[in-house]
Structure formats: structure tokens, C-alpha cells
Specification:
single chain, 346 residues, alpha+beta, four-stranded antiparallel sheet, 15 helices, 56% helix, MCP_transmembrane, signal, MCP_dom_sf, branched-chain amino acid transmembrane transporter activity, Mitochondrial carrier
């Protein structure tokens, strides 16, 4: 297990720039039809980015036209260190994922379903495990997203308590179970339902199982005549999963406060940050716009309705093609590997 830690660190470092960019691209609040406000002042426009300072009931609006425009904005304002935000909690997340994988292998090796080659997809153990894991890691997801989007410089050499003081509200620190808000738990339930649906329909190429006793079963699940089904499952999963990811990102940035009120993270964290002597990456520019703490999303349904009304339906598919292409890269790898293995099987 410990041999996996260097691999985890290297892969996390490689994916960090793309992950942090995607999170902030989806988190950026850029309404085309903002809520009514009595005090709205327009700002400057530079290239593909437009910064607008709005009234207190709207928040700051930063229009970024595309994923790579967001990547460029991060680099200009925060530099390379801006792409490594959330790295430490991501490493901890990955470490727990490794422990989970080891435990699953142990359970499978212990013969919970002896003689079955479909344990991973067909047993109730895996189904329950997937749901429980989604619930357990929810606080990790919240902290990672907030760490990525915070305008403050949090060093890995600082005490974890300092970082948590900035990333969590006083109510959340005193009562950590408040992180399990009903709207976020609903997104976990919906995601889990979609997970079950795709696999129950058996349209995912990785699910195909022909227990004919032939050798090389790992490659047989990716038979060429299954790849079109796998491709269809990729499109279906991304069409349903990406809007859920975008909405979840917005909800995770809102912090719980006493009285069931919520606030957008960057604004709500400022008092703690100033008391702790933390400095911002930039004193004059923000990477992303956030919804005002005086006008938060109050529920999952409210979030969807307000995002649709203010930002348009396209906001739900930010980064869609990048996600699809990254998924299809697996088909390419499998196809090449299958072609390479085919001569030796004759």
C-alpha cells in the first residue's frame, strides 16, 4: 500500500493544474441576467476576461470565456502555485481511496462471493460500498473545492487548524456534521442512482462478462464489439454527471451558518483570514466571481433554477467536451492494447 504513495503524489501533481482549472471554471459566477440590484458599477474588460463589480446583493462577476481562458487567468493572477491549490487535501483523499481499495481486495480475496467474477459490479457489497464512500468523502470534496477557490495563500507548512479556520465557518467547525447538508446529500443520492442505472442497463463496456472460462478475461471485457456500447455509456454519463458536478461545486462553496443561512466562501472567510494574518494571492484581482452572501442558493432546486435563469443552460455543461475526450482516451488505450495483443492470441 505504501508503495502506492509516490505514484499517488506524482499523479496528483500531474492532474492538479487541470483539476483546479476545471473546478474554478465551473465555480465562476458569471450571470447574463443578474438579480436586480440598486448599486451596480461596471469594471474593465481585458481580452477574454471581463471584471464587473456589482452591488452587495449580487456579488463580484468575472466573465471568463472558456476553460483555457480560466487557466490563463489563474496563471496571470496567482502564478504556478495557483494550480496546486487543494493539493494536500487531495493527497489525503487519495490515501483513503488506497485504503478503501486494499480493504475491497481483502474482502474479495476472503471469498465473499467465491467463484464469481462479477463481484465488482453485481454484488450488494460493492453497491453499498459505493454509496457509503460517496457519503464519507463528501467533507473531503467540500474542503478540496474550497481550498481551490479561496483567494488566500494557504501553505502546506501551516497548521491544519489555520486552513480549516479559513475554509470552514465557525458553525461548521463546531458541528462538522453540518457539512452534510440536505442539498449536497441529494446530489450524492442522484449520482449514486445514475451509477446504478448505467450499470443495470449493462451498456458500459467494462461491465460485459462472459464467464466462458477463456483466458485473459481482463481483455475480454473490452471486446471490440463492445466499444460502441462503452462509447454510448460515456456520452450518457457525461450528459447527466457534468451538470450535477457543476451544481455540486456551487453548493460546496456555500458555508453553513447558524440560523440555516449560507454564504459564498470567499466573502465569508475574510474575517478569519485577516485575524490569522493570511495574505491574498492578489490584492486587486479575483480569479473567479462568487454569488453574494446576501443572496445564496437555498437548496438544490433553487440552485438549478437560479443558475438557469441568471447564467443560461450552457453553464451546466462547462468543460463538457474536455470530460468526454478524457473518457474517450481510455477507449483509445484499450483499442491499441487489444490490437497489440491480438497477434499473440492466434
Amino acid at each position: 500500500m505504501f508503495l502506492s504513495l509516490p505514484y499517488l503524489a506524482v499523479t496528483s501533481l500531474m492532474y492538479a493544474p487541470f483539476t483546479t482549472t476545471m473546478v474554478r471554471y465551473r465555480a465562476n459566477y458569471a450571470p447574463k441576467n443578474p438579480p436586480q440590484t440598486s448599486n451596480r458599477n461596471s469594471g474593465s474588460t481585458t481580452g477574454n476576461n471581463t471584471e464587473v463589480q456589482t452591488g452587495d446583493d449580487v456579488g463580484s462577476v468575472i466573465e471568463v470565456n472558456g476553460y483555457f481562458a480560466m487557466m490563463n487567468r489563474i496563471n496571470k493572477i496567482e502564478g504556478l502555485s495557483g494550480f496546486l491549490k487543494g493539493f494536500v487535501p487531495s493527497i489525503l483523499y487519495g490515501f483513503f481511496a488506497i485504503i478503501r481499495g486494499v480493504l475491497l481486495r481483502y474482502l474479495i480475496g476472503s471469498g465473499l462471493e467465491e467463484g464469481s467474477n462479477e463481484f465488482r459490479f453485481n454484488s450488494w457489497y460493492w453497491t453499498i460500498n459505493h454509496f457509503v464512500w460517496g457519503v464519507i468523502v463528501l467533507p473531503f470534496d467540500i474542503i478540496i473545492n474550497r481550498a481551490i477557490c479561496t483567494p488566500y495563500l494557504l501553505s502546506f507548512t501551516q497548521s491544519p487548524s489555520i486552513a480549516l479556520s479559513v475554509l470552514l465557518s465557525p458553525s461548521e467547525r463546531k458541528r462538522p456534521w453540518k457539512l452534510y447538508r440536505s442539498d449536497l446529500l441529494t446530489t450524492v443520492m442522484i449520482s449514486f442512482s445514475l451509477f446504478l442505472l448505467v450499470r443495470w442497463l449493462n451498456i458500459d463496456g467494462t461491465m460485459s462478462s462472459d464467464s466462458s472460462g477463456e483466458e485473459d478475461k481482463e481483455m475480454r471485457v473490452f471486446q471490440m464489439n463492445r466499444l460502441h456500447l462503452y462509447a454510448a455509456s460515456i456520452i450518457l454519463r457525461n450528459l447527466t454527471r457534468i451538470p450535477l458536478d457543476v451544481v455540486s461545486t456551487r453548493l460546496m462553496l456555500q458555508r453553513y451558518r447558524d440560523g440555516s443561512t449560507q454564504s459564498s466562501l470567499p466573502e465569508g472567510e475574510e474575517p478569519n483570514a485577516s485575524q490569522l494574518g493570511l495574505r491574498k494571492y492578489s490584492a486587486y484581482a479575483k480569479v473567479i466571481g462568487v454569488r453574494s452572501q446576501s443572496n445564496p442558493y437555498t437548496s438544490l432546486y433553487d440552485c438549478i433554477i437560479k443558475m438557469k435563469r441568471e447564467e443560461g443552460w450552457k453553464v451546466f455543461y462547462r468543460g463538457f467536451w474536455l470530460s468526454v475526450l478524457s473518457s474517450f482516451s481510455w477507449i483509445f488505450i484499450v483499442t491499441v492494447f487489444s490490437s497489440w495483443r491480438s497477434p499473440s492470441s492466434d
